[in-house]
Design brief:
Layout (H helix, E strand, L loop, with lengths): L46 E5 L4 H12 L3 E6 L3 H13 L4 E5 L5 H15 L4 E4 L15 H22 L8 E5 L12 H21 L5 E7 L6 H5 L2 H5 L17 H8 L10 E4 L7
Parallel strand pairs: 1-2, 1-4, 2-3, 4-5, 5-6, 6-7
Helix pairs in contact: 1-2, 1-8, 3-4, 4-5
Length: about 290
């Protein structure tokens, strides 16, 4: 079943992948705005560094930003096929793309990303801290210390590492956008580690916004609800993927393309009076 825009409703086929998951192995394949997003030159002359830009929300943001006029640094772990596909869409929009693999849990790699952005483009105007790691567990005893550490290093340490490296090079009018989650306000017990990091990201966003306001840098966040990305089949049991998103008021999971507009708002002059904000894109689930 689909709505008038042909976005799929549950049930999805039961499926599972090994983390971090691949886009083309998903059924159905997510919509990143490849055929639908039309830019309006809102980011002409800008350079954006986007983590997790190989797939999911990150790819949708990369496509939208490129069609708005920005060049893109694609940060990703090791999903080379997905990253190459994102780069192709950026280049099809007439913009430059640089794909940089590596683990953002490493402080040195985060510094490397910023250095490469500056060496390649001479500027960094938009930092999107989007990459995330999650796993599902029914019992706290099943969560290893190593996994707890990996979740925090990916989801909250990396945004700290990247922001600290980037801010000295960002001019007034620049923007930092963090991806938090409805889990920051409505944590699910089976996503204990992930939800805890998303609460931290929302707090980090508010505090950093205040810290850099006098530099003319805006810091905001987008809080997705259930979104159909490779993170889902690669971190949830197959039976959970079947009805993923069904609980929302809209009755389905969101597509990555449906978040792109919120990121463009926060990156561009459309959001010039917004800082320290969290925009919920949740399919009607209320951020309590």
């Amino acid at each position: 079943m689909t709505d008038d825009d042909h976005r799929p409703f549950p049930p999805q086929p039961e499926q599972q992948q090994s983390p971090p998951g691949l886009t083309n192995e998903m059924k159905p394949v997510p919509d990143h705005g490849e055929k639908s997003y039309a830019g309006a030159a809102r980011l002409t002359g800008k350079v954006a560094l986007i983590t997790g830009a190989d797939s999911g929300i990150g790819r949708a943001v990369a496509i939208a930003f490129a069609r708005e006029g920005a060049d893109i640094v694609i940060s990703y772990l090791n999903e080379h096929q997905d990253a190459d596909e994102t780069a192709r869409w950026v280049e099809d929009a007439g913009r430059k793309a640089v794909a940089l693999p590596g683990d953002i849990t490493s402080e040195e790699h985060c510094r490397h990303l910023v250095r490469q952005c500056l060496e390649t483009f001479g500027q960094l105007d938009i930092l999107v801290n989007n990459a995330a790691f999650q796993r599902t567990y029914a019992d706290i005893g099943d969560i290893s210390t190593e996994e707890w550490d990996r979740t925090f290093r990916t989801n909250i340490y990396a945004p700290f590492f990247l922001a600290r490296a980037a801010i000295p090079h960002m001019k007034p009018g620049s923007a930092i956008i963090n991806t938090t989650s409805i889990q920051s306000r409505q944590p699910s017990s089976h996503l204990l580690a992930y939800a805890a990091t998303k609460g931290a990201i929302s707090n980090f966003t508010a505090g950093l916004a205040e810290m850099v306001a006098d530099k003319g840098i805006r810091v905001n966040a987008v809080a997705p609800g259930p979104i159909w990305t490779p993170l889902i089949p690669s971190t949830m049991p197959p039976e959970k993927t079947k009805d993923f998103g069904k609980q929302t008021l809209i009755g389905r999971a969101g597509q990555p393309a449906e978040l792109a507009g919120a990121f463009v708002l926060l990156a561009s002059d459309l959001g010039s009076y917004m800082t320290g904000a969290v925009i919920p894109v949740t399919g009607g689930e209320i951020m309590i």
